[in-house]
Amino acid sequence: PAGPALLEVKGLHAWYGESHVLHGVDLRVREGETVCLLGRNGAGKTTTLRAILGIVGRRQGGVSFDGRDLTRMPLHGPARVGLGYVPEHRGIFAGLTVAENLMLPPKGAEGGMSVDEIHALFPNLKERRTSPGTKLSGGEQQMLAIARILRTGPKMILLDEPTEGLAPVIVQRIAAALRQLKARGLTVLVVEQNFRFARNIADRFYVMEGGVVVDAFGAQEVEGRLDRLHELLGV
Ligand code: ATP
């Protein structure tokens, strides 16, 4: 899709203590796009998401979202302006039931998905609504983590390896849900190692290596890069 960038990252550097991990990351995501960040373990993908949100030791460079400068915001700022985050190890309240987890978004969240809409998107969660978080499968936990963020009505979500460790049939359900969300206009930046999944949902890709973006291409340009991606990611 054409149009201005909803998220724009320019020359982003990040440090954990003395360790300089990002060395000038540039990327942009337009409204309505699903963009996937690929790369080996340690390439800096998770750190890029964390640096966008300001949850690294130190960062330098530009991050703007929906016309706002995220680098000047406090930690809760990005969520308030509609940038949701589902971290790698899933953010759910394990001691609460599925239904209780879905009741938690802050009061006054405008435009968030209703529980009925969540149930339509993830029928598994409807079936499991009285189950405690501790009894959910990995896939159900991932769905619930995404659902909790959707309840808050974000414009865009950052997803960190949503399919890690999940069975192929569950991976397909998550891909189907992301396609439905895209049809509703949600913008997505997703970190993935599962290239089959990524290929199924992404409009565009960025490849990271050593803390910088080393390649960027559209879904229609994947075919010509398969050998290189195979070498880089083992796909
Ligand atoms: P993975 O899939 O393994 O998470 P990644 O591409 O997301 O890979 P990052 O997690 O962003 O990579 O890590 C980038 C680099 O930063 C790695 O060298 C890693 O060891 C280092 N790193 C990550 N988190 C920390 C931390 N909390 N403190 C210090 N160094 C870290």
From TrEMBL:
Entries under PROSITE patterns matching the protein: ABC_TRANSPORTER_1, ABC_TRANSPORTER_2
GO MF assignments: ATP binding
Matching SMART domains: AAA
Chain segments annotated as transmembrane: none
InterPro entries per record: AAA+_ATPase (IPR003593), ABC_transporter-like_ATP-bd (IPR003439), ABC_transporter-like_CS (IPR017871), BCAA_Transport_ATP-bd_LivF (IPR052156), P-loop_NTPase (IPR027417)
Keywords: Amino-acid transport, ATP-binding, Nucleotide-binding, Transport
Cited Gene3D superfamilies: P-loop containing nucleotide triphosphate hydrolases
Chain ranges of the ABC transporter domain: 7-235
Signal peptide (residue range): none
Family per similarity comment: Belongs to the ABC transporter superfamily.
Stated name of the protein: High-affinity branched-chain amino acid transport ATP-binding protein LivF
Origin species: Methylobacterium iners
Gene: livF_1
